[in-house]
Amino acid sequence: MKIIHYAVVAVLVLVGVLYYLWMKPPSVNPMADRRAAEALALVQTHQAQGYPTILQAMTEHVRSMSERNRVARLGEWRVKQLEGDLYEIRIQLRDQGVTGQWFEREFIWHADLLLKKVNAASLPADGVTPKELDAEPAGSPAPRL
User: Fold this and answer.
1) Residue ranges making up the domain that contains 58
2) 87 HSE (CA, 13 A, CB side)
3) Structural domain count of the chain
4) DSSP assignment, residue 19?
């Protein structure tokens, strides 16, 4: 009788694990998909305003808040394929204000793996990501050949 009990428990655990693996969203673990990992690396290593990379800018903000005895929490990096070579990368940042109130911002970037290009897709991300200069400024004459 005891063996049957353990067998039933083992089968239920196995079914639960298989169900979780089958139903979990692909954004839970971007490292399982090589292209998603490449998109995440493209965003994290992209130049940020005032810092060498976006990842360094985000972690430096958390560190500087800690030095001022204020709390900031960086969420998990999430990656979702939009279509083809276009991926969306998200991260949430929670800051504790001076009055103890919490503020949450979601940073969203789009990474194009074909063009190796990163674009800010949210207002907070736009404040971290430097603007790309146009190849030819508007109103400038075309170069002579």
Assistant:
1) 23-126
2) 28
3) 1
4) H
Helices 34-44 and 54-67 meet at what angle, rounded to 10?
60
In a domain, 86, yes or no: yes
Tally: H helices and E strands in the chain: 4, 5
Whether the pLDDT of residue 127 is over 80: the answer is: yes
Please state the rounded mean pLDDT for residues 49-78. 91
The CATH number that applies at residue 92 is 3.30.565
Q: What is the pLDDT of residue 69?
A: 85
Q: How far apart are CA 59 and CA 140, in angstroms?
A: 40
- Residue 12 to residues 9, 24, 142, 143, Cα–Cα distance (Å): 5, 18, 70, 71
Residue 1 lies in a domain: no
Find the DSSP H helices in 24-95. 34-44, 54-67
Torsion of CA 121, 123, 129, 133, to 10 degrees: 80
Look at residue 35 and tell me if it is in a domain: yes
